[in-house]
Design a protein that fits this description.
single chain; 264 residues; mainly alpha; three-stranded antiparallel β-sheet; 3% strand
Amino acid sequence: MSRMSGIGQYVPGDSSVHRLDAAAKIGVVAAFTVALFVVRGFAGLAALGAVVAAAIAISRVPVRAVARGLRAVGFIMVVTIVFNMVRWQPTEALVRLGPLAIDGAGLRMGLFFAARILLLVTGTSLLTLTTSPVQLAGGIERVLAPLKRVRVPVGDLAMTLTIALRFIPTTAEEAEQIMTAQQARGASFDAGGPIARARAYAPVLVPLFFQLFRRADALATAMEARCYRGSEGRTRLVESRMGTADWVAMLVSGGVVIAVGVLL
């Protein structure tokens, strides 16, 4: 199991979150995303953070698995904070360093946006952590089913999105293996300045892309060998449907997070 990314991985379990229908979980995540972008202050973010913490506790997913997904966006969060708090010759500043200074309002804005990114990644990764690939593909297909009326290949789109999500941990695992092999041969990825470190990662990209293309070709061959020809005429061993408990959980949870976003 790769230690670099938790996004796209599935952690088997028997919690109420795992048993919830995939379409219902997608609806809750959509409502949570809307709430994140309409919330106006730190109080709202704190309330939504409490909702996420409660969902993690109920799902019984290991905190380490959730934290692995945050490593990929750590750099983005730092850049977001820095770009918002650093100002050029502001009238008021917390700390000054020549013409550059740290602006208090910019710092608060940067922390707000970083917290929003943190909650967004955590909330959405909980969907893949508690939903198997088959259930996730079926849930996406059912959510996008109305688009079939305008001849959108919903099944193919759902399969593509699911494979893309599942390739995230695969890519991280491949990169980790290549970096470990190169470090065993004397390569260093943490020596020198930022430019030198960026150049040190360049030799990783060629074998990484080679491995990914080879894996994609093997996946395509396997799908063709199993007579996969898109969603037309496909059947499933177990047909998932939204039950009463799924509808109630989706409407109540979605309504709560939307209310938090609007009110706070």
